[in-house]
Amino acid sequence: MAWRLPPLNAIRAFEVAARHSSFTKAADELFVTPGAVSRQVRGLEEHLGRPLFDRNYREVALTDASRTYAGELFDAFAQIDKATRTFAAHTEQRKLRVYAPVTFALRWLMPRLGSYHMLFPDQGISIASQGLAPVDLDALDLDVAIRLAGSTPNTVAEKLFEVKLVPVCSPEFVERHKMSRVSDLADLPLLHSVRRREDWQRWLQFAGSERLAAATNVFFESSSLAYQAALSGLGVAIAMHALVEDDIAAGRLVVPFPQSYADGTTFHVVYPSTAQTDDAVLGFSEWIKGEAAKSSARLK
User: Fold this and answer.
1) Where are the beta strands (DSSP E) in 100-143?
2) Hey, which residues does 165 pair with through a beta bridge?
3) Taking a C-beta distance cutoff of 8 angstroms, is the pair 116, 125 a contact?
4) Is residue 52, in this structure, part of any structural domain at all?
5) For residue range 196-255, what is the model confidence (pLDDT) as tens digits?
6) How far is Cα 72 from Cα 79, in angstroms, rounded to an integer?
7) Looking at the DSSP assignment, which residues form a beta bridge with residue 156?
8) Are 169 and 44 members of one domain?
9) Residues of the chain above pLDDT 90, percent
């Protein structure tokens, strides 16, 4: 069968420009100039014999007919991407590349990875935790990211669980120090992460003690170090509840006061829009959402 196809480069340029509603953003994704995108689209319009965009001085907008065409092209490119990934997977085992913040990775993800490998025993996985949460997954060659921010251009973000802050310390620390009221924290070392400096103040304000000033404040580079300091009996840390639930369940940490403050942020699993047909990405996403649902249920 002889396929009657327009120039493929022109189709690609049109699909990206349609998705962004911008020649400039399309050029950024394709690593070409906006003029090159415009010329490709013009050439496609000439080939098809009808306009694809309504153009004015400030912006370009799809016509009603081309909007449907663009959606079908997106599906076609997604199918090509899936076919390519499937073919490559048969020739070389592909590792799923995941980013997770270091505290999330150490205290929540790692203890649960065993269940993932039981479900997907043949799926390799690599986990990165260095640096800030990525915005552009493709630029960093990532398949999936765990981050507090939701969707960004060209990504899909699905909620895992909201962040709730609780104070935690070791059982031995509770035995050594009087903690019957929140105001007692003023006489105790409070453990902080420099990356989440406002957590203690937000929780204290929620608990009605916003003017409390601790005698000693100890700062750590990450939340995971602050949590470890609490485990070691060095003071009281303010923690993301889901990330210390295993320690609380095992009796390694206790929550001295019941107030749980939802700070308005939520952990998400995020992946590129083009990976919506990627079985490895979707398998990981469904697994981690299931594990997150179990955590949320236990913390209610």
Assistant:
1) 124-128
2) 240, 261
3) yes
4) yes
5) 999 999 999 999 988 888 888 999 999 999 999 999 999 999 999 999 999 999 999 999
6) 11
7) 271
8) no
9) 52
